[in-house]
Amino acid sequence: MVTEEVVEKYDREMDRRTRQNLERFAEFMARMIEKYGHKVLAEMEREEAEKKQNGH
């Protein structure tokens, strides 16, 4: 687990461009989760059910 102190130190050292890129990436990931998350979760649940059914 990353401590708050480590996060704060990293945040202070991150330059403006890096921070903007990180924010853009986070926004992109949030959109992908909103768009495809339910499909991915359904697939994971299906695979887990198959494993249980097959005794794995």
Please provide a written account of the structure.
The mean pLDDT is 90. The chain has two helices and no strands. The radius of gyration is 18 Å and the shape is elongated. Helices cover 86% and strands 0% of the residues. The chain starts with a helix and ends with a helix. The longest helix has 38 residues. It has 56 residues and is mostly helical.
Helix content: over 70%
What overall form do the CA principal axes indicate?
elongated
Query: What is the rounded distance between the termini?
Result: 30 Å
Largest sheet: none
Low-pLDDT runs of 5+ residues are: none
The secondary-structure class comes to mainly alpha
**How confident is the prediction overall: mean pLDDT?**
90
Strand content: under 5%
Our count of helices gives 2
DSSP summary, beta strand count: 0
H/E series: HH
Radius of gyration: 18 Å
Q: How would you describe this structure in keywords?
A:
mainly alpha, 86% helix, 0% strand, elongated
What is the fold's blueprint, element by element?
Blueprint: H1 4-13, H2 16-53
